[in-house]
From TrEMBL:
<dbReference type="InterPro" id="IPR012337">
    <property type="entry name" value="RNaseH-like_sf"/>
</dbReference>
<dbReference type="InterPro" id="IPR036397">
    <property type="entry name" value="RNaseH_sf"/>
</dbReference>
<dbReference type="InterPro" id="IPR050900">
    <property type="entry name" value="Transposase_IS3/IS150/IS904"/>
</dbReference>
<dbReference type="InterPro" id="IPR001584">
    <property type="entry name" value="Integrase_cat-core"/>
</dbReference>
<dbReference type="GO" id="GO:0015074">
    <property type="term" value="P:DNA integration"/>
</dbReference>
<dbReference type="Pfam" id="PF13333">
    <property type="entry name" value="rve_2"/>
</dbReference>
<protein>
    <submittedName>
        <fullName>Transposase</fullName>
    </submittedName>
</protein>
<feature type="domain" description="Integrase catalytic">
    <location>
        <begin position="17"/>
        <end position="68"/>
    </location>
</feature>
<dbReference type="GO" id="GO:0003676">
    <property type="term" value="F:nucleic acid binding"/>
</dbReference>
């Protein structure tokens, strides 16, 4: 298995660890899915619908990623 971080830099994993913390808290850490397809669908919905489009992010000025992207496009037009 390959390493995701450089040796000795604890901040390299901060973004991914935060994402997985949110994933676990929002979907239920001990959730047992009836099938792989159900788990796959729910993870897709969580990531693509809620996390990427609806969840506000403090680093984006408390906008959703979708709103932030639109504001950048509007600024550059």
């Amino acid at each position: 298995m390959s390493r995701l971080t450089r040796r000795g830099n604890c901040w390299d994993n901060a973004v991914s660890e935060n994402f997985f913390k949110i994933l676990k808290s929002e979907t239920g850490f001990n959730t047992v899915y009836e099938s792989f397809e159900t788990a796959e669908r729910e993870m897709f919905e969580f990531i693509e619908i809620w996390y990427n489009r609806q969840r506000i992010h403090s680093l984006l000025g408390y906008m959703t990623p979708e709103e932030f992207g639109k504001s950048i496009i509007k600024q550059t037009a």
